[in-house]
Amino acid sequence: MGEFVLPGLLIFAVLGWIGWMVRPGNEPKWQALCVGLPLLAVLGAIATLEVWPLHNYRYLIPFFPLFFFLAVLGIEFLTRLLRMPDRVLKSTILAAAVLVQVTYLPTWATRYIENSATIQEKQKKAALWINENLPGEKPIAINDAGVLAYYGQRTVYDLVGLVTDDTTLAYRMGEGGLYERLERLNPQVRPDFAIVFPAWFLEMSQIYDVFYKPLATFPDPFDPNFSKTLYRINWNYQGVEDLPRASSLREGWILKDRLDVADLISESEHEYRIHRRNRTSPDIPVPFRRNFGYHEEIEALWPGIENEQDELIPALRRQGLLYFFDIIDAGRRVDGSETFILRNLDPYQTADLILRVCETTGEHDTFLYQMDLYVNGIYLQTIGIEGTPWNWYEAVVEIPGELIHDSNLRVQMVNRGSIHFAFYDIFYYWIYQKNNDLDSNIEKEYEDG
């Protein structure tokens, strides 16, 4: 904050608060407590944010008046503590502080000019382009609210959650969590276009083509890394990840429930909890992968095709099948355990639990995930999944009917780890049971026949 406040401001502010607390006389001390303790709590919270210095310290600027007030008290307290002559020395110190602040005026003026030019050349031009060239029926996805909404004359959907509250937690999870939230939007009102900083959405705009077909770019006149790009949003992937592969299913069995890991709404509905073993591991970002189908099934259906990009993908595109095999999904990295409840089950009926994983680090040529499965508090078995990184894998576990006492099943997965992997990346859970209605219909038809 050196370009905005005089050197030593925080020290003088702390001294000022102390001096206020020990000030002689009968003045109540609660006034100092009411100012100092909340200020300390708020500053402590802001200091934990990665974005605390952004936009000219905008998250701290509201507290500058209190800083200056306490700093003046600190100067007064210091002169009194050191028994310095009152009037002349105090006036000199305060005058020096004011002079130091005034020397920053050119910096502030320059910053103001640059920021104004950025708004004009990037944000305003982008908003006017949107207003002239895009349909207005649906919201526009953005990452900067304000000028874009005002001049663009569009409803906006804020991807970082500043003016759209349902993306706040999802964005903090990483792009995978945000993608899961976007998938849940009603197709009638979800955005078809997004104007964002590409550097803030690398996975969706550059690694995967969720944001694809750049329509226009609006450069920042002072920072090329902060240009804004307008993309069309690709919704072709939506829902492809919601079903397991066909070879994992039994004929005549139906889906009873599913848990989409990293989808905050699905996790809440299933009381999903992740218990970390290593507290130094961050919860964000969540694993986020786009993988082209299941390799063994694709090889069986299209034998002899070796080059995925040049042969297989064009062939599937010609047949209209491409997006049936292109799976994009988000998940969570588990180094401890996870618990959740699956619902809508038929009591005392055998069930198949299916889980999807993907090793997303690529640090080794092969991987081995091992986890212990508990159902309703009873250990069932250890699951082992091995393969190569960056590919989808599914495991199917049969749960005996005697462990399913009612329509709800409490599941716990405990990470066992392996020689190179102290975690596993989990993306989806499904549970299937036999379709009893189908059997009843067959029996009725047999009796009628």
Which labels suit this protein?
449 residues, alpha+beta, Jelly Rolls, 3 domains, five-stranded mixed beta sheet, five-stranded antiparallel beta sheet, 23% strand
Q: What's the gist of this structure?
A:
This protein has helices at residues 9-21, 30-47, 54-57, 64-81, 87-103, 105-133, 147-152, 168-173, 175-183, 202-207, 264-269, 295-301, 308-318, 322-325, 436-448, and strands at residues 140-142, 156-158, 193-196, 211-218, 228-233, 253-260, 273-275, 288-292, 326-330, 332-334, 337-342, 351-357, 367-375, 378-387, 393-399, 409-415, 424-434. It is α+β, with helices and mostly antiparallel strands and 449 residues long.
